[in-house]
Amino acid sequence: MSVMAYDEALERYEPVLGLETHVELGTHSKMFCGCSTTFGAPPNTHVCPTCLALPGSLPVANEMAIESTIRIGLALNCSIAEWCRFARKNYFYPDMPKNYQISQYDEPLCFDGYLDVEVDGRTVRIEIERVHLEEDTGKSTHVGGATGRIQGADYSIVDYNRAGIPLVEIVTKPIPGTDRLAPEVARAYATELRELMRSLGVSDVRMEEGSMRCDVNVSLMPRGSSEWGTRTETKNVNSLRSVERSVRSEIQRQAAILAEGGRIIQETRHFHEDTGMTTSGRSKEEAQDYRYFPEPDLVPIAPDPVWVARLKSALPELPAVRRKRLQAEWGVSDHDMESMHNADAIEIVEATIAAGAPAADARKWWMGELARRANESGKALADLPITPAQVARVTELVASGTLNDKLAREALDGVLAGEGSPDEVVASRGLQIADEGELATIVEQVLAGNADAVEKVRSGKIAAVGALVGGVMKASRGKADAARARELILEKLGVSE
Amino acid sequence: MSAITRDEVAHLARLSRLAISDDELDHYATQLDDIIAAVAKVAEVAAEDVPPSSHALPLTNVFRADEVRQSLTPELALSGAPAVEDDRFRVPRILGEEA
């Protein structure tokens, strides 16, 4: 498959984005029955006559799911429907035992909102078309065939534990004008949406477990044209990084086809984490008519305006507002705040500060040393085996002069290696900064052994003191306070800066 | 209205995985015919001043509290399935070769 270089693709074409995001709500019970929604249970243990569609069963809507959906809509600046209905979406995959999914069609619960995201120092407003409520489907495993995919499988086996878990679908309007930042805008939107869900407490939004899933629509139009091109919809995008990569690779793929005079087929595509590319899935042109009609087993929803107003006034501080407040409190630059946001570090830095660390130190350790460790081991910061309180304790040990930065890194090493708390690691590894007496002795030895450097410093080449400080650090095996060693050296040589 | 045939009842029964005897086929064909004829009368009285409705009762906001209730055991849940594998419902190939 040929692709065009990203820069060239952007010179010739302008991308238009669209995102459909599914979020599984964190209710205790399913959307229309009392089965548990807990993830990871043995197959078909969270099923009942209603979610298995046995004859005679009837659905009843979960009030908490309705409430959560309205709260999501309010947080996304949407209007809330005064009256709306569920709809039946009929289809013939066995992932729903009813042969239909209860969803919403032309009467979504929430509509016409927006979400502002920050990209590269500028604010991009993403218009929200609709937020509607539906039920999740069961999980199919395809048996036989080479790829484990539905194509070529001999048969499939289905677990209905997930069938009927409340699922919110958030659909953006088409997003033009993002230009070469389209991949970053898509990622920033998904990131912001995930944080919004977290702050509302409506979902655990774990993309790797599928409780938040993004479908990414991309189309291209030639520069100077105002007519949108044919779009593709990429599914299976299950990390924030993949959202960004899938937009980029789809732009490059479509550009190559268009440049050769080809035509984009409106279709569903699958994203592959390993190659970073998409492959063709089901053709949308052949997608069946879902024969939507109002769900006769459920009565309409007419949210009481008083209830909606109460939910609105009880919304928590939203992530963008919170970030602005924290940025002011911590006194960090826009750039540093955006880096922390992109690294998903804000909560953990906040917790470290709450545990007693100065803001600058908390940021320094999480965004420096610990970010490097996380990156090396392919983990998220929050998954490192160290707590914000432990990081705060290390900063305290540095502030009190027990550790210098190098020893602090060793202390972090020990904690990460499971050797216990920072204090235990300091004790067991003997990490203690050299005291004044020890330091003076070491400085004497280093000066005696480095006549050349000593001469240079005495003759005014102050920069040469670096080599002597380095010698002290080496001789002390890292346990000296470098700044104090420098002072002592200059003092003993009778040089002042 | 055209009468519901025995063949149509047998077809519905197979789709619904219901075991129905020969005698019952005739019985249900007559019943279904009567039901459809009764429902068809609605079309005769539908007037422009009657808004379409999707539910028999003029109710809104019938909700349940978000409380977990006992599910079926997997044995019971799977007991009506035509085929079972690894505690899952086994279903025939979903997409043909060309898909």
From TrEMBL, chain A:
Q: Which GO terms describe its molecular function?
A: ATP binding; glutaminyl-tRNA synthase (glutamine-hydrolyzing) activity; transferase activity
User: Has UniProt tagged this entry with the keyword Glycosyltransferase?
Assistant: no
Record Pfam families: GatB_N (PF02934), GatB_Yqey (PF02637)
Q: Which UniProt keywords apply?
A: ATP-binding, Ligase, Nucleotide-binding, Protein biosynthesis, Transferase
Q: Which reaction does it catalyse?
A: L-glutamyl-tRNA(Gln) + L-glutamine + ATP + H2O = L-glutaminyl-tRNA(Gln) + L-glutamate + ADP + phosphate + H(+); L-aspartyl-tRNA(Asn) + L-glutamine + ATP + H2O = L-asparaginyl-tRNA(Asn) + L-glutamate + ADP + phosphate + 2 H(+)
Asn/Gln amidotransferase domain: which residues? 347-493
Origin, by domain of life? Bacteria
Q: Would the keyword Thylakoid be found if you checked this record's keyword annotation?
A: no
Q: What is its EC number?
A: 6.3.5.-
What InterPro entries does the record tag this protein with?
Asn/Gln-tRNA_amidoTrfase_suB/E, Asn/Gln-tRNA_Trfase_suB/E_cat, Asn/Gln_amidotransferase, Asn/Gln_tRNA_amidoTrase-B-like, GatB, GatB_Yqey_C_2, Gln-tRNA_amidoTrfase_suB_CS, Gln_synth/guanido_kin_cat_dom
What family does this belong to?
Belongs to the GatB/GatE family. GatB subfamily.
Name this protein carries in UniProt: Aspartyl/glutamyl-tRNA(Asn/Gln) amidotransferase subunit B
Gene for this protein? gatB
UniProtKB/TrEMBL annotation, chain B:
Under the heading Pfam families, the entry gives: GatC (PF02686)
Q: What class of enzyme is it?
A: ligase
A GO biological process held by the record: translation
Q: Which UniProt keywords apply?
A: ATP-binding, Ligase, Nucleotide-binding, Protein biosynthesis, Transferase
Query: Which InterPro entries does this one have?
Result: Asp/Glu-ADT_sf_sub_c, GatC
Q: Signal sequence: where?
A: none
| HAMAP family assigned to the protein according to its UniProt record, in alphabetical order | GatC
Function per UniProt: Allows the formation of correctly charged Asn-tRNA(Asn) or Gln-tRNA(Gln) through the transamidation of misacylated Asp-tRNA(Asn) or Glu-tRNA(Gln) in organisms which lack either or both of asparaginyl-tRNA or glutaminyl-tRNA synthetases. The reaction takes place in the presence of glutamine and ATP through an activated phospho-Asp-tRNA(Asn) or phospho-Glu-tRNA(Gln).
- Report the sequence similarity comment from the record: Belongs to the GatC family.
Q: How does it assemble?
A: Heterotrimer of A, B and C subunits.
Q: What is this protein called?
A: Aspartyl/glutamyl-tRNA(Asn/Gln) amidotransferase subunit C
